[in-house]
Records
---
Amino acid sequence: MNTVPPSIPRPLVRANQWVIVLSVLFSLVTGGYWIMAVPLIAGLMGIVFDFNPIMRAAKGFLKKKPSEYIPEDKAQQKFNQLLAVLFLLIAFISHLLHWTLLAYAASAMVGLAAFIAILGFCIGCFIHYQWSQFRYHNRKHD
């Protein structure tokens, strides 16, 4: 029986995070908000079809077997991807509607969250943990 939860090699997660960071930076610097569609569509595909083309492309650059890299929990990464997609979608739609303040705020939030995750602190993981604790304590008191 397999007791190890499904995981994703860390370099693939990092590649996805870098694409988010760079697309947000590019869109903020140039005004080319359409570039955020790349991580948005890739993230949606990852959530809906369990196939992220960014991670699939990055997999070709791995020098070792995927199992030899530090694993990232797949369920946690799916939650993080859901948050990223939500903020990318808000930013993208806001740009289309010329809601500049919301577009910049959502872009900055997802870009900063991805960059902070690259540096080692996962904001999505923290939110997921706090949400789990909140749900646990609410069930306990029922």
Note: Residues 8-140 form one domain.
---
Amino acid sequence: MFLVMHLITRKTPLFGCFLFLLLSFFSSAHKSTNQERDKIARLPGQPENLNFTQYSGYVTVDNLAGRALFYWLTESPSNPDSKPLLLWLNGGPGCSSIAYGAAEEIGPLHIANDAKTLYINPYSWNNLANLLFLESPAGVGFSYSNTTSDLYNCSDSRTAKDSYKFLVRWLNRFPQYMHREFYIAGESYAGHYVPQLSQLIYRRNKGIKEPTINFKGFLVGNPVIDDQHDSFGAVEYWYGHGLISESTYNKLIDTCFDALDNSPSITCIKAQEEAVAEFGNIDPYSIYTPPCNSTTSLKRELRAHYPWMTRSYDPCTERYSTEYFNHPDVQLAMHANSTKISYPWGTCNEVIGTHWSNRPPSMLSVYQELIAAGFRIWVFSGDADAVVPVTATRYSIEALKLPTVINWYPWYHNGRIGGWSKVYKGLTLVTIAGAGHEVPLLHPQEALLVFDQFLKNQYMPTKSF
């Protein structure tokens, strides 16, 4: 590079321009080669005549530690060059965006119950945007680290920094997305991931006239926002929906909110265990739908390092993902597991979730900073989720003390109530009636409408026709 630049400065302007164009050509060719290497020719079991392009592969975010993050890009089937780019993150912490966001929620290809066949999701969000799914942090899904200790000391901060590095390096590989309108979305513990990554992008963009990442805003569903308000809202929801007894409710109120931190008291833990027992054989992530097999999943609902129940989820769709993404031919087609990871692909990494460190108890200050900066921020909540319920989200948002622009009102979809909404100065809250923790899984049409209104920055429809 030094020799080329030396020649440019020593030769005539015409020769300099020629060398510059030549250098640009080879640079573009190199990027194109890297991009083409990640292109998916065909996934096993996919429908014929697929009308969108997809890519997947690895981006190294730490050369010294050997941390590499796996992504899956599904472009829009119509006019992808004019559509925005959306990054989707699932939470856990330690759960896969490929397993949940892509394969059973907003992605265009879902897995049939034979765990071999894929079918088109007509309500995929790639109808409106190009979707980028990221398995993060390293150790989740196909993402990996060559440093074993990385799995035992994951944190919010490192996850945000690695995700930012991923984005910058991924955009270098896909330069057509540079300067494209960019949004971030996610759910559950991504209520931490999404605003923190948004904050990092905002701060890094300061002082740059044309930033590579043209960040416009974020959208989060049933998100973890603030421990104190989330926890209190969860207990209120359990009692208000008849899931727990008066005595257990009183025990939770009396023992779990005096000194809320990541190490709840023994009496608080015991009260939580009583609450889980009183729930019975339900899916706490969707209380009005039958569980797939709750005898094992309910045992995972309590983890001492959280002041409320954890976010491990075990629906039947998760089983199909586990089988499908462990097929060697699927991994080959997706350019995944190229380093031959010593453990099978899984929907969640329990080691990461159990040993999560340096977890801030609140995102309220991050929201305040991003609201003041003028970004578009929407929060949506399925009101049949008992894990991060709508009451938890409402308490946390009210703690921001934002002025009300439009008070609580019903919105409609296909002639029926779709949910309710409230518009604050700088933030919009939308609830989805009858939906659980994974809104796009149970109410895909309504979820797509919410995303559409978010992109348009328009209020939810108020008429029933």
Note: Residues 57 and 196 are 24 Å apart (CA to CA).
---
Amino acid sequence: MNILVLGATGRVGNQIVTYALHERHHVTVLARTPEKIQKNNENLTIFPGNVLNKNDIVDVMHGIDVVISALNTDGTTTLSESMPLIIGAMENEGIKRIITVGTAGILQSKTTPNLLRYQSSDSKRKSTRAAKEHHKVYDMLKQSTLEWTIVCPTYLPDGEKVGNYRIERNYLPEGGAEISVADTAEFTFKQINASDYIKSRVGIAY
């Protein structure tokens, strides 16, 4: 399978690339700082470029089967500004499947079901800026023709892969406090062959 990984220089994205190469998929990454990709593999293609450049996004989509976005917010609006370009290029190329890594803040609140967690007392985070960025992306994906899945981890320490975690559609599993980068990346990567959570958010935690 030809997989495009966006955000491959981040913690989750880097692990996703590792899993994909281990299973002998062809992986393409688009990176502003390609030198950060410390991997040599015949199945890895590195495109120097920027997700905010429409031409770069269009060029990198050719021949792709599935897109995985692990782009994070990093105090910017890169996430919400790049998603319309990504969706447009995918729709033009006829690529249907996208899996993105979001945040538990955009899952439904269990105490106030008509709100998202970041809008309610469920979330203990003082800053809602990152969640608002992910909320914009969620709204864009809902309005697209794509077969999307948003993986929504809670607190993300580095940690080892445990391989045993709880998942719940549209909600954070009860009492879930953390999930490692490695397990989040593994679950996200597995969605390339799964259809259980198409057009859904998925909460993930231990």
Note: The longest helix spans residues 78-93.
---
Amino acid sequence: MSKIAQKCGHLNQITEVKQAKAQECAKCLETGDSWVHLRTCQSCGVTLCCDSSPNRHASKHAHSSGHPVISSAEPNERWLWCYEDEQIARY
């Protein structure tokens, strides 16, 4: 983890990064919507769309569920984000 992550206890709790099981937003599939980029919740493993997507399902999930940390589910991107502390860590 990066030095920034040391300021965030949520990021420091991630010992193994959950990877996306599919390259699709679980909520957008239910509604027939599209997405831009994908993020995977590090608490429950659900993959949802990012804040650049119209529905912003990943951040909505983080705030409603209390699951603060997501990882990028995009190919060749290796980072974690904590919504609560607004901190990033690269791995």
Note: The beta strands are 38-41, 47-49, 69-72, 79-82, 87-90.
